[in-house]
């Protein structure tokens, strides 16, 4: 276990994700200063149900995009891994920002090829309906669930379930279940929209022979 600076936020961050943040509170301005001067990383545990979650994602400061006269900052970060909080401190020793004693969680990235094929097929249908096919084209062939997690229409609790999953195969199963639930609804909505568009138009119909 080790000590890690913590920055609780109302969102789930996934490993590999690039996250841009606007920093305005003095405690987190201090955190950014420490990242720059000491080379430390920090963790983002989701703030859910009025409490700091036990799991979080460690992020690395990539750079400061802009510094304002007020002292506020725009920063770029990259998420590198998942951890579990064993002890949470509202203030790290001698600091304004929070901290905690954390344990790093090791992930099994092995994919289930059949599940991956189903997810790809479902995603193509989903993006076609939403008019976002370009998102599918931008994905690498060996994409992970973390790469698409924010583009699935999941709520925060569902995204946190993905963070809790210890293997890629578990995440694949969760995503398949979600897509199989929402796709029929979206496809039916699309068909309904098409029927509404056709109503009131002149129709060239071939009458039946009887």
TrEMBL record:
It comes from the Bacteria. It holds the Pfam family LON_substr_bdg. Residues 3-181 form the Lon N-terminal domain. SMART domains: LON (SM00464). This is LON peptidase substrate-binding domain-containing protein. It comes from Hymenobacter sediminicola.
